[in-house]
């Protein structure tokens, strides 16, 4: 009975629901409901993007201010060890980003360098043939 009520309620929701309720059922009976969206369309991420696209400048500033304040509170509560770990991870990510950019730039430079050599060789060959060399 409860399963029917729950699945009926979840099916009426607009978004995907994947609910696990092991505490409502005897042990060993995993209750996993996968409910398909009743109406096709946006994912939750797309709805969030739509909502942000429609917000005013004041709402955006308020949202960003709230996010910054939560980040400051989180950092104020962290221990020295957690802070050091966070900074180390940031450093690793920036090194990795620089290495990836360097590799990408190297590939691009190699491509253009080889292309330029090819073009200049063809120009030299053309000039030589026109000059009768």
Automatic annotation (TrEMBL):
Chain residue ranges for the region called Disordered: 40-112
Compositional bias ranges of the Basic and acidic residues kind: 48-63, 71-84, 97-109
Ranges where the STPR domain occurs: 42-108
Name of this protein: STPR domain-containing protein
